[in-house]
Amino acid sequence: MKHAHEVAQSAQTPPAPRRTRPPRLDWAAIAPTIAQLRGQGCSARETARRLGVNIKTLEAHLRRHRIRHAIPMDRPDQVRRTCLNCDTAFVADGRFLRLCPECRAMFS
Prior knowledge:
The protein is mainly α and 108 residues long. It has two domains: 30-72; 75-108, no CATH class. Helix content is 44%, strand content 7%. Strands 1-2 form a two-stranded antiparallel sheet. The longest helix has 13 residues, at 27-39. It is elongated.
């Protein structure tokens, strides 16, 4: 009886494991397309949509390989602000200034 049970088990092949993740991408093959789309000014979301890739997958790849946007976002030297003390509008010389010149002079 024991032998018949072993024969029955060996005749059945175990089911193939289900793949829960999507198939891996060949990043080397799609790297030129990514570079071209990013060079044209496409965002990561638009690039992922055109390639048919999950946005989070593409963002993780770009972050992992330190690929920045083709057009760097320069921060302006002057920023419009509202004073935190007197609530007047002014143009700050840097992005960290939050007080107008009058209030800065008063607190210094």
